[in-house]
Every structure is written in structure tokens, then in C-alpha cells.
Amino acid sequence: MSIQEAIDALSADAPNRIAEASDLGELAAVETEVVGKKSPIAEGRRGLGAVPESERGALGRAINDVAGELDALISRRRDELESVDHAQALAGDAVDVTLPGRAPNRGSTHIIQQVLDEVVDIFVALGYTVATGPEAETEFYNFTALNFPYAHPTRLESDTLYLEYGDVPEEILLRTHTSPMQARYMEEHEPPVYLVVPGRVYRSDPLDPTHSPVFHQIEGLAVDNDITFGDLKGVLEHFAREFLGSDAKVKFIPHYFPFTEPSAEMHVWHNGGWMELLGCGMVHPAVFEAVGYDPAEVTGFAFGMGADRLAMARHGITDMRHLFDPDIRTLEQNR
After folding, report:
1. pLDDT computed for residue 160 by the predictor
2. Per-residue pLDDT at 188 exceeds 90
3. Are 147 and 263 in contact (CB under 8 A)?
4. How far from 217 is each of 90, 138, 180, 220, 311, CA to CA, in Å?
5. Domain spanning 111-334 has what CATH number?
6. pLDDT higher than 90, residue 128
7. Span 265-277, mean pLDDT?
8. Comparison of pLDDT for 325 and 334, the residue scoring more
9. By mean pLDDT, which of 32-46, 68-82, 309-323 is the weakest?
10. Are 149 and 257 in contact (CB under 8 A)?
11. Cross-sheet strand order for the sheet of 193-202
């Protein structure tokens, strides 16, 4: 068989053998046979010296063309087989990423904080500003600026928790209500004032189903020209409907607070009976005088409500101690 015939036979047979190689080992064996040192390609190149010079150039180019085509086919098949091996290796090492994660349990805002946030949002929607104040308060802002007489029983240590702080005995105390921010805010701002103050307060009360030495209040204050008790009723009736539902019924019962005159309690019809929800009234002229306002030029109303009681009314809780129970099973009932 001449060199040309051997090269032609190789060109016809080798591509199929390369394509049929099933793995890299089989492909390597085929490569050795078709382009290796003992292949027809190598033998043809070694035999070119015996070919007449007039035919040598054309035959050499033919051998190189076949060798180039076979090298390209071998390289392409090797890439295909390596891709198969790589895919199989990845499949063997794969991790099932569709398994559910181990996320920690998500907490929620405490029921009292939920109430504080909701009440504040209702009044912010009416144009009120939110403010907070110190929980350790002075006797002046907690009592005197709010028109509490010096003989008022709430000033006694049996009702109020005083702190041993500073040089003046009974000067610093844990605030008994959020009302001190009324005086503090009015000292810093000219009217009109529309303010709501959420926060924690303290009193010397036992911990029982209806009392706690630590509880939460939301104070409200509106000061402007010609504010009337009718404005007070309208705002608080709107609040009751927003918080308890559009069918909420309210009534105002005369009461006494040192810092408002006239004063009232607002009761709401809830769960088949009337329940006291908050205290309110028109700001006493003495409070305006204590902060530098002229009672002849401004009027206003104030109100204060317990966030704990609101939470109990909303969720049907009958024992205040449940609000502070650290047992997660109790807290989860009122998410």
C-alpha cells in the first residue's frame, strides 16, 4: 500500500474511531494509533525521502492536512469527555440546597409596645408631635408645675418612689406619670402645642391583678387659641373609635385632677360594661402660669391613659401580671 493510499484509508476510518471513544483512556489509545509514532502519519513522513521529488511536496502537504484534521477531532473529543467527567464529579459532590434552613425563631414586639405604637400613630395622624422625657424626674416638674398642692397625698413616700440623689431630700423621684413632659415641653416651645408622650412610670403600688409598681402611660396635650371641652371630646371619641372600633361608645364623667379644670374620666362600653379608659380635662391656668404661658391668651386640654389597661381591654386580659410574665408561652398568646 502506497503512502497516499494509507493516508486516504486513515482519513476515512480515524474520524469514526475518535468519535466512538467512550472515555479518555480509549481516546488516548486511538490517538496513539492514528497520529502516534507508529501511526500511518508517522510512517508516511518517514517514507517521504523515497518519493520522487516531483511528488514529495504534494504528498507531504496531504499528510500534514490529515494530521491537522485528526488532531482537531481528538482535541474536540477530549474536551467533550472531560466535560462529562467534570459533570459526574460535581454530581457526586453535590449538596441538596433545597433543604429548609435552620432559621432562629422570630420574636415580636411586646403587647404593651404594640399598644404604645398604635396609640401614638393615631395622634400623629392628627398632627401631634411625639416627645419623651426622663424617668427620674424632679419634684417640681412631677408635682409643683402641675398644680399639685404641697399637702397632696401623692407626694408622700407611701405613693411615690423617691431617689437618694443630690443634696436636697425628696427632690428627685421616679416619675408617677408622663405629665411632667407637659411642663418641660411648654417651657421650650411657644404655642400652639399638640403633643403626645408615651413612656414608663412608677408608683408605690403592689403587684396584683389590677396594679403594678411599673406601668406605662400615654400623655396628650393640646394648647392653642380658643380650644374648648368640645374639642377634647371630639379628639378622644375619635381615638376610641380608631383603637376599639367604629362602634365604640364613650361617656365623660366629672372627676378631679390638680392640673385640669374642669376634669373628667372617659369611660367606654366594652365587653358588655362601662370601663374607665383615661382621665382628661382642660389645662388648669396655674399650669400655664408655671411654664410662662398667659392663660388669657391660650387654652388647652390634656389627657392621660394607661397603655397596660388598653392592652388588657384589647386582648381580654384580666390579670395585669400576665403582661409581665416572662414565660414565653404566656407572651406568645398575645403576639
Report:
1. 92
2. yes
3. no
4. 62, 18, 12, 10, 12
5. 3.30.930.10
6. yes
7. 86
8. 325
9. 32-46
10. no
11. 129-130, 193-202, 214-224, 299-306, 273-283, 260-270, 250-257
Checking if the pLDDT of 296 tops 70, the result is yes
Strands 129-130 and 193-202: parallel
Pairing of strands 260-270, 273-283: antiparallel
Distances (CA, A) of 221 to 155, 230, 335: 23, 15, 30
Residue 154 cell numbers, joined: 401623692
The residue extents of the domains of the chain are 3-93, 111-334
Coil, helix or strand for 199? strand
Compute the mean pLDDT over every residue in the chain, rounded to the nearest whole number.
88
**Cβ 78 vs Cβ 19: under 8 Å:** no
Three cell numbers written together for 235: 379628639
Region for residue 62 given its phi and psi (left: phi exceeds 0; alpha: psi -120 to 50; beta: otherwise): alpha
